Amino acid sequence: MLFRDRGKPDAAALVGVLLAADPEHADVQQPDRACQNPLPAELVSGASARILARVLAMCMGIPATGHTAPIVPATRYTSPIAETLAPDLLERFLRYVRIDTQSRRDRTSSPSTPGQLELGRLLVAELRGGGIGDAQLDENGYVLATLPGSEGAEDLVIGLIAHVDTSPDAPGHGVEPLVHRRYDGGVIELPHEGVRLDPATMPELRGKDGHDLVTSRGDTLLGADDKAGVAEIMAAVAHLSRNPDLPRPTLRICFTPDEEIGEGATLFDIERFGAMCAYTLDGSDLGELQDESFSAVEAILTVEGIDIHPGLATGKLVNALRLAARIVAALPEGLTPEATADREGFIHPYELQGTARRATIRAILRDFDDDRLEQHISLLRATAEDVVATEPRARLRIDVREQYHNMRRYLDSVPYVAAAAEAAIRAEGIEPLRRPIRGGTDGSRLSEMGLPTPNIFTGGHEYHSVREWASLQEMAAAAATVVRLAEVWTRPEVRAAAMSEAGA
Ligand SMILES: [Zn+2]
Hints:
Blueprint: H1 2-5, H2 9-21, H3 31-36, H4 49-59, H5 80-97, H6 115-129, E1 136-137, E2 143-147, E3 157-163, E4 178-180, E5 188-189, E6 196-197, E7 213-215, H7 224-242, E8 250-256, H8 270-273, E9 277-281, E10 288-290, E11 295-304, H9 320-330, E12 346-354, E13 358-367, H10 370-389, E14 395-404, H11 408-411, H12 415-427, E15 433-434, H13 442-449, E16 455-456, E17 460-461, E18 469-471, H14 472-488, H15 492-503
Helix pairs in contact: 2-4, 5-7, 5-14, 7-14, 9-10, 12-14
The protein binds zinc ion (ZN).
The site of zinc ion has 5 residues, from helix 7.
């Protein structure tokens, strides 16, 4: 009962009068009568949210403008499995996001920060508590665990992967998650720093009326990237472990450190993992399935100038910082992340540091096509060389480091891997959205290293920002998709495709 839930039983009773008088056309023509003759609230059980809202508005003296008061029915879960998983999933998610696992660039050890080990230890304890006795945290910060397959399906090993670290691009310490039950479709004002989640500027929020949303307080990121994925795998595996009758192959679970700084796959031991393929839960929108990512490089440009006391600098000073700024300014404006979409690549200078003596530009370059990525690298190189050539005494060094390749070329040869995920998403009653990732995941490099690993949605949004949010209903759908995926991998035709490949 809507009003009961909101602690307004009198209002519910008032609405009852209208419905009893004219259930077909109950509306606000008789607000006076409604307000004076309360009837039992049970009568309103068939009332629409629109009618309830308008009557309540009338009784409270608000003109009936046709706008409804913010009364929103709860959104239904995608399946009974999703609904069953949701409470445990939310509890885990709120617990995990409170641990500061932000990774740090230019790491000197794995993981780059100790908070990732803290979460790793918690996950191991929870896995063991749930009956997964082999769960362990290795010396590099990787959590590994095995859920044995059901009878006859043990020989097939499928991996589930999520990353424990959060992005260094937004504050990650002291995350205090807020749960907004039954989102009303309007602007969400977060308590800190005037941060607003506005559907006018955030299209992903539209249509989420009735969802239970989780946000930060506005002063930190939330960490749904990728603790939504971690919590979804944990909740799904706990559910499978509690229900041994549910069909599943042997599931190998790995939680990786330092994905956000591009190192998640670096010390991933594929042989020890032992799976024939894996899935990362590190996507976003409901139903997303990604088997294509950017190809990616990082470029570090170092400009060396000549520094001298500015009072004595006439004709002698060579200002590296000014030269670096001119390089950044000379890059084409149409080739930025903010000006490109879909399958277009970009050059993104994201850090400029320096003094008159030496300045460093760090940039990432991305494209789905390797040849076009090479063109972006050449363009960056030529631009920097042209600018620095104007000052013969300055020196320029360009270091280009490969980060990952488009995973498509590796996944195309094992089409049944993504097809199994599609079948699982459909089994959860969701239409799969197959789109390229404008980024990379652990799966980009793992696929290249020989472990085909497409990416599945998590229900988290606005990653790497203080506006990050997640929908509980979508997270539960992702966890339920994992349970479905386990079943899909026990289907004879899916097993046969995988086994013939393994034997080939
Ligand atoms: Zn992520």
